[in-house]
Design brief:
single chain; 46 residues; mainly alpha; 2 helices; elongated
Length: 46
């Protein structure tokens, strides 16, 4: 899923704009935090 989001991010960005590494990292970091939170919640409740 994260790869799909990153692909959409790259496909929809204007060609004349370049982003720093931190912008690319947020595409993975923010969803990963949600995924880890969900995994932790399931582990604690199960």
């Amino acid at each position: 899923m994260l790869v799909v989001l990153y692909g959409l991010f790259l496909l929809t960005k204007p060609g004349d704009i370049t982003y720093d590494a931190w912008v690319h990292a947020t595409v993975f970091v923010i969803p990963a935090i949600g995924f880890l939170g969900q995994t932790l919640q399931q582990a604690l409740s199960g």
